[in-house]
Amino acid sequence: MTISFKPLGLALVVAMSVSACAHQQSGGHKGHIIAEPxxxxxxxxxxxxxxVVTKGSHLVFQQxxxxxxxxxxxxxxxxxxxxxxxxxxxxxxxxxxxVGFEAxxxxxxxxxxxxxxxxxxxxxxENGDGDKTNDGNQWHSHWVVLVPDDSCGKGAxxxxxxxxxxxxxxxxxWPGLPLFIDSPGYQFSFDQTEVLVNVPLKDLGFPAAFQFDxxxxxxxxxxxxxxxxxxxxxxxxxxxxxxxxxxxxx
Length: 250
Hints:
The chain is an all-beta fold and 250 residues long. The protein has strands spanning 2-5, 12-15, 23-24, 33-34, 47-55, 58-65, 84-91, 107-114, 140-148, 157-159, 181-182, 187-191, 194-200, 211-212, 215-221, 230-238, 247-248. It has one domain (2-72, 81-248).
């Protein structure tokens, strides 16, 4: 199936096979996205339920998968070039300026990622070993800006590159990579089938309500380590089935 993604006026096309039949729920599930199981998706990345809810001083981004959330990570290859990233992603219709990027830069998404071959969280020591530079194989949070780039494959997406010689606005916790990526160090947890990321409201310029979707995906670093640097190489599952961002934060 071909999935068209058209938030913020963009027409992004992702080629993938998906059997999700998603819809928003009424009553206690108002604003949530409920999806049917996708037989071709790995259980760890088969998205069944996505929601974003306010709890006290935080927004909690949640995804429920069929089984073993967070248990599967990429295989290390011992180098940056060609290395893989596994991600639980919440694409939103929020403006990129909401978290400190240049305004109107692309599709703003929250992501929880794991990639054993490089570290992009220089401010944090995720595994508590006293070294902040070797934690790529620990799950950790990012804000990213996604844009289409046919260099990644026809209609595919990438994390937006920062061209040489340009200095676009970046969040205070930008890790210094030539990408529209932020490493905010949000608290998160896995609970059997559920992924949760806690985003402090005080740090954000969010509206009270916004649309979102839920995606699981694999990304890959360019073999030549230049732009496009980080492409979405494999979409495992999409909660809505068509990246229409039907969820509404509560």
